[in-house]
Amino acid sequence: MTTLRIIIDRTAEASCWTHLLGLSGELAYRIETGPATTIAPLTTLDAAWSGHGSFTETGAGALDLTGASEDWTRFDTGLGASFAPTMATETGPVTLEGPAVWEHAFEDVVPDQALSFAGSPTGFTVRGPDARRDRLRPGAGLSFAATYTLALHARPARPLRRRVLQPPVKPRRVRRHPS
pTM score, two decimals? Predict the structure, then answer.
């Protein structure tokens, strides 16, 4: 048995322009199904256009990469429902949320990048993860009352294909009607 250990201590650097334009939204209608439970049919829209200019790395010799400019678009829609029971606690109501959305992608589902090593006439393509054209996206969320008119809501971002950063906790205004 032969063991070969190769250590390369080089750093390649490059610069290029990048862009990202995105829109993401969810529309839901909550229906009370009990004294502390709601179900909400919902629809989603997720659209984005991102890309970067061509680049050539320097600093790593024969390991420097050259990449062509790339654009990637995403246009996904979804239909689903969310089930949300609410529990009373000493500090106020706590709501657990369990959404499930069936999504369809109308654009690219696998991003890729054309690359080549410095001085090489032969290029290669690196492909990203396959997000599938049709997929089920289950989720989970938690809301609790911070004040009488403000609730904090936490729901993790979509897995794998989500490129737009979202805060993990979002404040929500609560409209209370006198009973």
Answer: 0.66
Which among 142, 175, 177 is positioned nearest to 156, based on CA atoms? 142
User: Which phi and psi angles does 47 have, rounded to 5°?
Assistant: -130, 140
Q: How far apart are CA 96 and CA 77, in angstroms?
A: 24
> What is each CA distance from 103 to 10, 80, 134, in whole angstroms?
43, 9, 6
Q: What are phi and psi of 62, to 5 degrees?
A: -65, -15
Give, as one character, the DSSP assignment of residue 101.
E
CA distance 54 to 61: 18
Q: How far apart are CA 105 and CA 111, in angstroms?
A: 13
Determine the Cα–Cα distance for residues 10 and 65; give it in Å rounded to an integer: 13
At 74-83, the pLDDT tens digits run: 899 999 999 9
Q: Taking a C-beta distance cutoff of 8 angstroms, is the pair 155, 143 a contact?
A: no
27: which DSSP letter?
Answer: E
Separation CA 139–CA 157 (nearest Å): 9
